[in-house]
Sequence to fold (352 residues):
Amino acid sequence: MSRPRKRRGGCLSILILLLLAAALAAGLLWQRYTEFADSPIAGLRPGTTLVVRQGDSLPVVLRKLQDLGIGGLQTYEWTALARQMGAAGRIQVGEYRLEPGMTPRDLLEAMRDGDVIQHRVTIVPGWNIRDLRAALAKADPLVHDATGLSDADLMAKLGKPGQHPEGRFLPETYVYTRGDGELDVLRRAHGAMEKALDAAWRARHKESVLKSPDEMLTLASIVEKETGIAEERPAIAGLFERRLRIGMRLQTDPTVIYGMGTRYDGNIRKADLTTDTPYNTYTRAGLPPTPIAMPSVEALQAVANPAPGDALYFVAVGDGSGRHLFARTLAEHQRNVQTYLANYRAARAAGR
Fold:
């Protein structure tokens, strides 16, 4: 009877030892696993980025990391961590920043949540379509999918065939990610302008002389080009509206300059003011046929609610401030012109 009991005791001891060994091994594996998950990835250099493309699996991402000079990558460790974090099969497309000190857990979390690098491009108020397209052509890493398209083809690509592109893109800063193209940015900017223009048109004052949102956009573009002083915009908008109401020509230099196109060399001469083009508001009454620039939201709002008054003329102060002098009569305006000339000459004499 004693010998079987000894065999059972020996088996129990072996079983306990095996369990202890398994627990120790599991503990060591867990320690190694947690050290792997939360230790900085070796070999990361400042400014390095990882691009994940459509269809890239975790093994493909690991090969890309190896191509970036990062060694010692164990697929089974990354796979186990990805499963634990819910990142397996959920890696999102995009460009990711790799900085020294980043851990595998940090990187998998970023790829799971789509925490991609965001780039920015700014459309400046007062730019024309040539300025805008030139800026987008230089933006990196934006995909240049509008290069080579005519303005007409561009608008057709945006779903607006036949629409003139001038003034149709809202000036602001747009965020994009690697893989986005010029058309993506332009589509968003066009939609933003449509929304801003619709809001301004619905908020316009009841006595507005403007007959359509397109006319509002055109007048706002002129106001945008006439002044960089925010508080002056409603006054200038009101002045132009009064001119339109009484049939007086707008006589605004920015429209003449726009009509000159690439012939404009920074100076506007008397011959330019008398040379007729569809945009010469000295030779033609009413608004020009299209906007002449990209107006800001503030310019749209100024045209929707212009300042009241009786001024019909304005001229720059001439002191470099960018401000203007307003006048009700031609005689008063001519005195303001003399003030402008005196200030301008004094500024030049002072080297300003």
Remarks:
- Residues 19 and 25 are 10 Å apart (CA to CA).
